[in-house]
Amino acid sequence: MTTTQDWEDRLAALWAGLGGYDEAEFRARVEALVGELPPDSPVGAFELACANDSTGRPELAEPLYRQALESGLSGYRRRRALIQLASTLRNLGRAEESVALLTAERGRSDPDESVATLDDALDAFLALALVDTGREREAAGLALAALAKHLPRYNRSLGYYATHL
Length: 165
Fold this sequence. Notes:
Radius of gyration: 17 Å
């Protein structure tokens, strides 16, 4: 079974209301929704990872992100899982592993065009991990290059300076 639009809508509504639940109740609600999916669903593992990560339980999120990725999570959710796993690793004090994971993902093509919309987010989290590994100049260059694409002016100049940091 794949997810349905109704399931996705209920999940989106739950996430939109995250601040209205205590952490345990929120996780229980996500678990209930995930319970509607097959036990081996990569989407289910991913959403459980997200719920644990968002409620301060990164050590429980990490293996769930890995399970989701190893179980064939694809497209936009796959890219999100990879970014979130790397962020979790960084928060767990494993910044070098985070850098390796995000660096390998940079420039990876995917037939799902929505994946590319997360390229700048990937670079932002890579920049954070680079700072934690003592590579601040590289991090600043990466962050500025991502930012340059979104400015109303000075895109070319900022992009040039970012590349040469």
